[in-house]
Amino acid sequence: MHGDQAADVCVIGAGFTGISSALHLVERGYNVRVVEANKVGWGASGRNGGQLIGGIAGEKNVARHHGRDVEEIFGSLRWEGHDIIRQRVDRYGIECDLKYGYLDVAIKPRHMRDMEADYERLEKAGFPYEFRILSRQETRDAIGTDAYIGALLNMGNGHLHPLNLCIGEAKAAVSLGATIYEQSPVMRIEKGSKAKVITDHGTVTADAVIIAGNAYHVLEREIRGIMFPVNSFIVATEPLSPEVVAEINPHDVAICDPNFVLQYYRLSADKRLLFGTRLNYFGDDPNVITRRHRRKIRRLYPRLADIRIDYAWGGTIGVPLNRVPQLGRISPNVFYCQGYSGHGVNVTHLAGRIMADAVAGTLEQFDLFAGVKPVVVPGAFVLSKPMVALGVMYYKIRDRL
Ligand SMILES: Cc1cc2nc3c(=O)[nH]c(=O)nc-3n(C[C@H](O)[C@H](O)[C@H](O)COP(=O)(O)OP(=O)(O)OC[C@H]3O[C@@H](n4cnc5c(N)ncnc54)[C@H](O)[C@@H]3O)c2cc1C
């Protein structure tokens, strides 16, 4: 970005939160500029597992805070992000390999009990897509491993190519008049009745600003220290043969286990196994990721012990301690939106709609989230790495109990 620009709304960050908000806003006729430090989708949005998961992390804490029933508050919001994605893929012809079919798998009897409760909730809500509990044998038949004692199949959830979705939505926003400036890190925001977003080479003066930097945001300390940056890592194997695909995932579903230090995996459109999990690892040598992930893949699928791993990468997720997505403002017209705890593909799309409403002056749903004060850990900003490492160790032990 060069020179001085003016806009109705300036969005900082071109991940799902920023791009989704921008697209909602241009669809409503706002003049929008998006300012991105790197490239569209460079952060978690282009690096994630592409699992289209329903639900909003921390929803019980929101309901508890407002003294209202979870269902009454969240009902249809849980899957609104899915609907937005589906509509955008159709409307703008976005090629992002969107597919439906998702297995929440159970390792222990307590996971089965949780799944049965989820099943009942879906039934009560009249969930409009196929969902059913799978037995141990049915789970084995579906994904070719004995690692699980059962699963909940949900055909309303699914998977997609996240970077292509983000780029497709960015193109749609640009086609409707938005401007996106890449390679333009924001250095400062001057607050006021008109806010000024300042980069090294230019400025955007806007009636409203949305900060959408999530775990990569370092600008405003007051919102950086209220969630933990947790890394997650993914490997992509070489393309699998049709025979292996038929054995390990013939229906092309996405899979996720219920642990906190969870494993999530699926096939890409070109039939690579994309396998992700969290690790306590802060280096930059992808061989470490490859080695550790290979061990985990081997435990699930011994026949893939020697599979070639072509790519390995990581990214950072924003995890609030109470898991509640953080929507708020740091001045009357400077909003922020962050912290989806690994449910971001869905919830960023819901959040983008809520942020567009907030900018337009409709605050009811924004206030549901903004009213819940974040749990702040003193020193979290400075000491986040050792704290996260300790947290991951703690949860690994809890997962084993
Ligand atoms: C490895 C991994 C796997 C995941 N798997 C899943 C999954 O399968 N399903 C799911 O639902 N969720 C998953 N998530 C979470 C999900 O990806 C995120 O919640 C979501 O993408 C967050 O989107 P965002 O736009 O808020 O943030 P990001 O995508 O991180 O975007 C933030 C952007 O802001 C920019 N930025 C930051 N500071 C500035 C600045 N000062 N100036 C300009 N730009 C700035 C950054 O460059 C970045 O592009 C995963 C995350 C990771 C890392």
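qc> Residues 225 and 381 are 4 Å apart (CA to CA).
qc> done
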